[in-house]
Write a structure and sequence with these properties.
This protein has 13 helices and 11 strands. By secondary structure, the protein is of the alpha/beta class. The protein has 2 domains: 112 residues, ATPase, nucleotide binding domain (Nucleotidyltransferase, domain 5, 2-Layer Sandwich), CATH 3.30.420; 194 residues, 2-Layer Sandwich (Nucleotidyltransferase, domain 5). The strands form 2 sheets. The chain has a 6-stranded mixed sheet, sandwiched between helices. The chain has a 5-stranded mixed sheet with strand order 3-2-1-4-5, with helices on both faces. Helix 3 packs parallel to helix 4. The radius of gyration is 22 Å and the shape is globular. It starts with a helix and ends in a 7-residue tail after the last helix.
Length: 356
């Protein structure tokens, strides 16, 4: 009996030890972005080799940033809704996925950080879950995209660009003295939501035709700002590989090609132009496809047609401004939504090549 009891205790101890070790490899991330709250849970085996498994990912579409384009502030009802959603997501990560509290990170995107009253959101998050809300600057967000998205061997030949809800950010890396990886950020103050709200200010009605007309009239200003974005990074346009992420790029790729099957999915500028024509002139095609394809249906439930038009305009203008674009390799990076969390874990573990 004593032997059986010892064996039972040993197995129980081993099980607890294994469970504890496994839970230490679990990380959770909650990102409050312009279009909503994104939640990721990953199981990390070897962060240096990029060896991790996405255990779960979900999005709460609550439109946090729409007030920013109106008066520069987050709307009070949007703050309260964001806090409610974040608190529920935090408990789900902790209780259902058994992620240690110290391995759960909560961040606000650079688009949301533009709000003049972002401190109100920070305080309410702290009171709700006793976690600090860290806002990621556009510069750091671009660096996190690079580190968490692209294979290290491609750093020197690549540019990243993420079209978010509140802004567009990215950048590239140059290698100095054959060893120092230096990141150069590029940013645009428009994202899918903020551009939509800016165009809405110029419309006289809620009609799609009025919006489309005003959005077309906005293109010269958008082109000027994109040109300034690229001019801020002298070597950005020289990179042969361009990795794109963000909700608008996901929407384009999914609506035009179907669900992305690879981590990096190649496409051409011509594909975006063709998609844009369907989006503006034959939207019913996408609505019909959504009845049969759940992923396309998810896109249309996430974005209105006006939001899709704004995102497409940013994407086309950003690509058309790149010289010799047809000679570049363009990729939709499917895992862009968790790049910041992977980057956080890399920083946390201190096992990845440092980018300055």
């Amino acid at each position: 009996m004593k032997i059986k009891k010892l064996i039972t205790h040993f197995l129980l101890f081993a099980s607890i030890t294994l469970s504890t070790a496994q839970s230490k490899n679990l990380y959770g991330g909650i990102e409050i972005g312009g279009k909503g709250v994104k939640v990721s849970v990953i199981d990390v085996d070897n962060i240096k080799k990029g060896d991790y498994e996405i255990k779960s990912f979900w999005t709460d579409n609550i439109g946090v940033a729409k007030g920013i384009s109106i008066d520069g502030n987050l709307l009070n009802e949007d703050i309260l809704k964001a806090v409610e959603v974040v608190a529920a997501d935090f408990l789900k990560i902790k209780n259902e996925f058994h992620v240690p509290v110290e391995n759960i990170f909560v961040v606000g995107s650079s688009g949301v950080a533009q709000a003049k009253n972002m401190n109100e959101l920070t305080e309410k998050i702290k009171n709700a879950i006793n976690k600090d809300l860290e806002f990621i600057t556009a510069n750091n967000e671009g660096k996190m995209l690079m580190r968490g998205l692209i294979p290290a061997e491609n750093y020197a030949t690549s540019m990243v660009l993420d079209i978010g809800g509140g802004n567009t950010k990215g950048g590239y890396i140059d290698v100095l003295n054959n060893e120092n990886f230096v990141f150069f950020p590029i940013n645009l103050n428009y994202g899918t939501i903020t551009l939509t709200e800016a165009v809405n200010k110029r419309t006289k009605s809620n009609s799609l035709s009025d919006f489309t007309e005003k959005a077309f009239g906005y293109l010269p200003e958008l082109r000027d700002q994109v040109r300034a974005m690229y001019n801020s990074g002298k070597n950005a346009l020289d990179k042969p590989n361009i990795y794109l992420s963000g909700g608008s790029v996901w929407a384009f790729y999914t609506l035009y090609n179907g669900i992305a099957k690879e981590n990096f999915n190649e496409f051409k500028l011509e594909d975006v132009i063709n998609y844009d024509a369907i989006l503006k002139n034959n939207f019913k095609k996408f609505e019909d496809l959504a009845k049969k394809d759940p992923e396309i249906d998810r896109v249309l439930k996430t974005y209105s047609q006006k939001h899709l038009i704004s995102g497409s305009n940013i994407l086309i203008v950003a690509l058309e401004a790149i010289p010799n674009i047809d000679e570049k390799k363009l990729y939709f990076a499917k895992q862009g939504h968790i790049a910041w969390l992977v980057s956080y874990v890399a920083e946390y573990s201190k096992k990845v090549k440092k980018i300055w």
